[in-house]
Design a protein that fits this description.
The protein is mostly helical. The protein is 78% helix and 0% strand. Helix 4 (78-91) packs antiparallel against helix 6 and helix 14 crosses helix 15. The radius of gyration is 20 Å and the shape is globular. The two termini are 32 Å apart.
């Protein structure tokens, strides 16, 4: 597993360079290339790993809480709400007027609003996990429409950057957010891991979990809050990257079982590897054109989504 991560990182560092440049890295380091790797490639790799880990860990938790393998930040509308918050902050140039932390803050507000709407829609009668997924998809479309409207109203000089961000891309991000985003996402993942016993009890069912003296409603609200915070943080940097939280946790659960003290960290680790691999593919497939990473994850996620639906029917 460690070998795969190292291989992924090495590929992410050198992909896109021609053979002579790659050769010079190992024989005699070119100063300009080393500067590019230090100030562009390495920060990008860090953010890809943080994003993949955060989305996968969040997806793993949401699938358990909702008892649905199709649950993840994208399908529940959390990513859409966060993206809407970010695009509005960009439209009104709040980052320049208030400060660079405005972007993740607006993303968090959007994610929380989205999660609240989904929760209200799902709990009108009796709580239904399948209804929540449907509500999430509806809310996601609503926020996507608002986001696209804001995109149309964006100034011409920012259209390309905004479009790339909407598709899910690490080509352009505010490097000042790296330390803060890493701290928030890693802290959130640790909180989710510390909640493993609660998640194991929830996985056993509501009746059994109550026998352990666990306040299900309070813990579920806390878990929704943490996953929304993680999602908002990564969306404010990378844009909408769908299905990472769907694919990786399902594969990890099939390999490592249902103990959340194992599958949450393994989902986070595997998510980082998966997104790094997707980034390498997006860089290589139509080189020198770099595709937004969200295109690759959406294609793979759509296929996996269909596979899960077919498997569930059978």
């Amino acid at each position: 597993m460690l070998f795969l991560l190292i291989l992924n990182i090495v590929l992410a560092l050198v992909v896109g360079f021609d053979k002579t440049v790659v050769k010079s890295l190992f024989i005699h380091a070119n100063k300009n290339i080393m500067q590019m790797i230090k100030y562009i490639r390495i920060p990008k790799i860090i953010m890809i790993c943080i994003t993949g880990a955060g989305l996968s860990a969040s997806g793993c938790v949401l699938q358990t809480v909702l008892n649905n393998p199709l649950a993840e930040p994208f399908t529940l509308g959390i990513s859409g709400g966060a993206a809407c918050g970010v695009i509005i902050s960009l439209l009104f140039n709040l980052s320049s007027r208030v400060g660079f932390l405005t972007v993740p803050f607006c993303a968090f507000i959007g994610a929380i609003i989205s999660m609240l709407i989904v929760s209200i829609l799902s709990s009108r009668k009796t709580f239904n996990h399948h209804t929540m997924i449907l509500s999430g998809m509806i809310v996601s479309y609503m926020f996507t429409s608002i986001t696209l409207l804001a995109f149309v109203l964006s100034p011409m000089d920012t259209l390309y950057m905004t479009f790339n961000w909407l598709m899910g891309s690490f080509s352009i991000f505010d490097e000042r957010l790296i330390i803060i985003a890493s701290a928030i996402v890693l802290s959130g993942i640790i909180l989710l891991i510390l909640s493993s016993n609660v998640l194991n009890a929830i996985y056993l069912g509501t009746d059994k979990s109550k026998t352990f003296g666990i306040n299900i409603e309070r813990n579920v609200k806390f878990l929704f809050f943490v996953t929304s915070l993680i999602t908002a943080t990564v969306v404010s940097i990378s844009g909408i990257i769908g299905f990472v939280g769907l694919i990786v946790p399902n594969i990890c659960k099939s390999i490592f079982g249902d103990n959340h003290s194992i599958i949450i960290p393994m989902s986070a680790y595997s998510g980082a590897m998966f997104l790094l691999a997707c980034d390498t593919i997006s860089t290589m497939i139509f080189s020198p054109i770099i595709l937004p990473i969200g295109i690759i994850t959406n294609i793979l996620g759509g296929i996996f989504f269909l596979f899960l639906l077919i498997q569930k029917k059978t």
